[in-house]
């Protein structure tokens, strides 16, 4: 048990914290030992007043004494709605120390993405992607950390940190393995719910086991009491101090300070007075103590509580309605009463004098002591003062959220502007709160629909079900006209699709299109109709859909984006149905302008969404125009990376670049890119179509490489099994799953899966044997069990391949036919397959055909050609097969 202070300069809050202090010292020493070592994360938890803040202060002293750079920040109960508040505090020392050009140099490509969130750069014109901003902040801290090594980051009261900071903290904690940074976090348990709780849990999961701080023991309380009041404090008095405070360090220190103030003798006869003194040190007792300092000091403390964090003396004086010299006097009084204290310069956010509450418990008690009506009024005054200070609508919105609705059109406009500012820096949740508050005002009738529309746009990516309600309400009100109304219908249909309500999405688009006269707006909605039907993978195929799309696209010349969209959709439909590939390419080419995407149809343009362009690139990829597909998908990757869109958009871009690599035969590159896609998809969330695209593409690539064990492990780990998504995934999920099952020896299950693929393709009319190669795989699987059916499947596959007309499709069909034959007929068919696939851009298929031809013809020359191709592709399975045959040498010539 601790009987004396841990050290002469140690805080009273550090009694019985030797183990925790030693953990910090050990972590600091490990950090300083090697600039290339892994980072570490310490999380200290415990109830209010248990000593978390004091422990972080001691950790700071320890780190600085050993030559570390320390950045610290603190959450606040009243400012959890302020996005990026805590991370801005955390990075303030680094930001202040850099000139603007230095900051741009250090942050590089991330400057324009992370800079607005940090308040050091103006936001761009587009809505920022929250995941991209989070990744940008991770990259920013990583780069600055290398400059500042050894660096210690401290976040106090993390349970009151804003959601955006916690998202960053969780992502940063996951990446500490290759970055020498020590992160120390203090939090209370059970204080938060929802997304913030999820992020906090992720932080905890990345840490060493959370250290939960314990209350002081009776012996430690007695030691602290005697160290504070003198050695004459008797045992009954010390025991009562512990009983009254429950061993809570904060309450113990405050109670002992009150004992000193009242000059109470620390003996048994005085012990009965401790409970009353303890009540005066917190809750209503603290408020009474505050009121005892006078009305001016009380008003100033209220103003400070309203401001919350970063309490500027000037702003607090303005809010309290007093001159600066009077505010300084009040600040001194509150400092002497252990209510307010000066902020350490290293954690300052503002350039003027700043204050903070001595303890979060005091801040909460003072804030809650303000009469309700007055507190609301003061928030209104604070919003005005913040706006007048030039900090913008977003900074003022925190206070406007607390103001009672009052039919104020100006407040509605302020909140709409704040929402735009929040969206521009990547804080859609903060934007949602502002717009929801604007609705409660409420807006003027002519504005109401626009606010609902803006709210729907703000929640589209994060809450599709909520978005649906907002956009439907917006469309039911007057105020949305022209292109804005059409855009609202499109976004509503997007939300419905994301919410697995595709039929409703189509009906919504059709109902609006029926109201419009012929023209670009109506054609846009008609294109959207076919787009949603085109990506649907269900078995409720709409009869005549392809015919109707063909008729509508037949009237299009590509003069505007609505017509271009219809041409793309028609090209994609023709590709999936296995129609003539030259016609597919011609349709797709007509949708371009001088070989490039038209203005308004770019990857980051929101008018149409990325689905359309993915269809365009896929049509090229499966029609053997891989150069055009690769160009499109690479442009997508560049566009999303530059714009900082590192969520679902970037995942899909990687997935489709991986598809292009896979089709080209660059299997190593395909695997790397698809793994990156899957990593990003994991952050976005399982079960989404983008998640399936990454997983399916990776399994297909691993099978091509011959790594069956890893393909199965990926399938098991990521749930690559029925039920499948309701949207189309490329390559075809059932075909890939069936081939995987056969590869691992579950032949019967694989055949069943391929037969399910056959049924689904028949319903949808998808007869492209390259995109959905079920017939080829099924024919090979049935070769010995049912040779008659296998032969029929091979003949049908060849017929469909010749209809599509690409070298890859015909070559693959011939490979299948050769595998079902023997003798010279097999050799002739294999030779024909090589001839077609040699002209194809798909090098893996060419390599496979060469090896199979070499085996059938017993040709060393052909086997060596196939081996060379297989090595360039990274097809380890083919390499092993060719080398094995060459090694035996039997019958080769």
Automatic annotation (TrEMBL):
GO molecular function: ATP binding
Database matches in InterPro entries: AAA_16, P-loop_NTPase, TPR-like_helical_dom_sf
Entry keyword set: ATP-binding, Nucleotide-binding
Domain Orc1-like AAA ATPase per the UniProt entry, residue ranges: 16-184
Taxonomic superkingdom: Bacteria
Name of the molecule in the record: ATP-binding protein
């Amino acid at each position: 048990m601790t009987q004396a202070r841990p050290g002469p300069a140690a805080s009273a809050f550090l009694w019985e914290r030797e183990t925790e202090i030693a953990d910090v010292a050990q972590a600091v020493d490990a950090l300083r030992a090697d600039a290339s070592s892994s980072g570490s994360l310490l999380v200290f938890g415990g109830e209010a007043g248990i000593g978390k803040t004091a422990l972080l202060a001691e950790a700071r002293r320890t780190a600085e004494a050993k030559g570390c750079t320390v950045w610290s920040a603190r959450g606040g109960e009243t400012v959890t709605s302020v996005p990026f508040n805590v991370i801005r505090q955390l990075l303030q020392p680094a930001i202040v120390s850099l000139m603007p050009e230095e900051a741009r140099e250090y942050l590089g490509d991330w400057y324009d993405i992370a800079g607005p969130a940090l308040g050091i750069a103006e936001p761009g014109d587009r809505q920022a992607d929250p995941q991209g901003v989070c990744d940008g902040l991770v990259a920013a801290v990583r780069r600055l950390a290398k400059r500042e090594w050894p660096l210690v980051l401290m976040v106090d009261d993390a349970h009151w940190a804003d959601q955006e900071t916690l998202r960053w903290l969780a992502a940063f904690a996951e990446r500490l393995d290759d970055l020498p940074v020590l992160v120390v976090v203090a939090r209370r348990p059970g204080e938060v719910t929802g997304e913030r709780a999820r992020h906090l849990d992720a932080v905890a999961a990345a840490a060493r086991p959370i250290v939960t701080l314990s209350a002081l023991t009776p012996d430690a309380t007695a030691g602290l009491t005697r160290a504070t009041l003198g050695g004459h404090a008797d045992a009954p008095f010390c025991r009562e101090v512990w009983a009254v405070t429950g061993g809570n360090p904060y309450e113990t220190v405050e109670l002992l300070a009150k004992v000193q103030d009242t000059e109470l003798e620390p003996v048994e006869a005085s012990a009965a007075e401790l409970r009353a003194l303890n009540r005066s040190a917190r809750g209503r007792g603290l408020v009474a103590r505050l009121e005892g300092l006078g009305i001016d000091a009380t008003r100033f403390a209220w103003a400070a509580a309203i401001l919350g964090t970063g309490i500027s003396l000037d702003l607090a004086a303005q809010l309290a309605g007093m001159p600066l010299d009077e505010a300084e006097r009040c600040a001194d009084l509150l400092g002497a009463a252990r209510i307010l204290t000066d902020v350490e310069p290293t954690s300052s956010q503002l350039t003027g004098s700043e204050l903070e509450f001595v303890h979060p418990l005091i801040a909460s008690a003072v804030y809650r002591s303000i009469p309700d009506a007055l507190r609301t009024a003061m928030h209104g005054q604070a919003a005005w003062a913040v706006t007048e200070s030039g900090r913008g609508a977003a900074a003022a919105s925190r206070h406007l959220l607390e103001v009672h609705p009052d039919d104020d059109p100006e407040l509605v406009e302020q909140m709409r502007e704040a929402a735009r500012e929040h969206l521009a820096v990547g804080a859609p949740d903060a934007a949602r709160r502002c717009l929801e508050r604007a609705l409660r005002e409420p807006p003027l009738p002519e504005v109401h629909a626009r606010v609902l529309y803006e709210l729907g746009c703000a929640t589209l990516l994060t809450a599709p079900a909520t978005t649906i309600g907002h956009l439907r309400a917006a469309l039911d009100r007057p105020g949305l006209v022209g292109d804005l109304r059409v855009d609202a219908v499109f976004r509503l249909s997007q939300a419905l699709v994301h919410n697995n309500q595709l039929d409703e999405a189509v009906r919504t688009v059709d109902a609006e299109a029926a109201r419009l006269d012929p023209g670009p707006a109506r054609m846009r909605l008609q294109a959207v109709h076919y787009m949603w039907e085109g990506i649907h993978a269900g078995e409720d195929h709409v009869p005549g859909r392809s015919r109707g799309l063909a008729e509508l696209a037949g009237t299009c010349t590509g003069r505007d984006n609505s017509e271009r969209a219809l041409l793309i959709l028609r090209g994609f439909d023709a590709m999936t149905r296995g129609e003539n590939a030259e016609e597919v390419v011609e349709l797709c080419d007509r949708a371009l302008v001088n070989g490039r995407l038209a203005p308004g149809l770019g990857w980051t343009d929101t008018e149409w969404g990325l689905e359309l362009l993915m269809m365009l690139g896929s049509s090229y990829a499966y029609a053997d125009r891989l150069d055009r597909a690769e160009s499109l998908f690479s442009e997508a990757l560049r566009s999303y990376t530059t714009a900082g869109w590192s969520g679902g958009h970037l995942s899909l871009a990687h997935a489709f670049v991986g598809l292009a690599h896979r089709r080209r035969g660059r299997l190593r590159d395909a695997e790397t890119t698809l793994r990156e896609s899957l990593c990003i998809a994991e952050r976005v969330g399982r079960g989404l179509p983008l998640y399936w695209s990454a997983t399916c593409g990776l399994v297909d690539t691993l099978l091509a490489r011959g790594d069956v064990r890893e393909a199965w492990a990926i399938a098991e780990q990521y749930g690559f099994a029925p039920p499948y998504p309701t949207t189309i995934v490329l390559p075809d999920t059932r075909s890939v799953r069936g081939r995987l099952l056969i590869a691992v020896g579950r032949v019967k299950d694989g055949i069943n899966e391929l037969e399910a693929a056959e049924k689904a393709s028949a319903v949808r009319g998808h007869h492209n044997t390259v995109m959905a190669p079920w017939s080829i795989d099924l024919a090979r699987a049935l070769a010995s069990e049912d040779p008659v059916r296998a032969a029929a499947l091979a003949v049908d596959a060849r017929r469909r391949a010749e209809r599509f007309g690409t070298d890859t499709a015909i070559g693959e069909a011939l490979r299948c036919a050769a595998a079902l034959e023997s003798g010279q007929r097999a050799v002739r068919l294999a030779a024909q397959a090589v001839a077609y696939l040699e002209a194809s851009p798909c090098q893996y298929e060419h390599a496979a055909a060469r090896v199979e031809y070499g085996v059938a013809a017993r040709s060393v020359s052909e086997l060596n050609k196939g081996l060379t191709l297989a090595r360039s592709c990274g097809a380890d399975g083919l390499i092993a097969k060719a080398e094995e045959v060459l090694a035996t040498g039997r019958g080769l010539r």
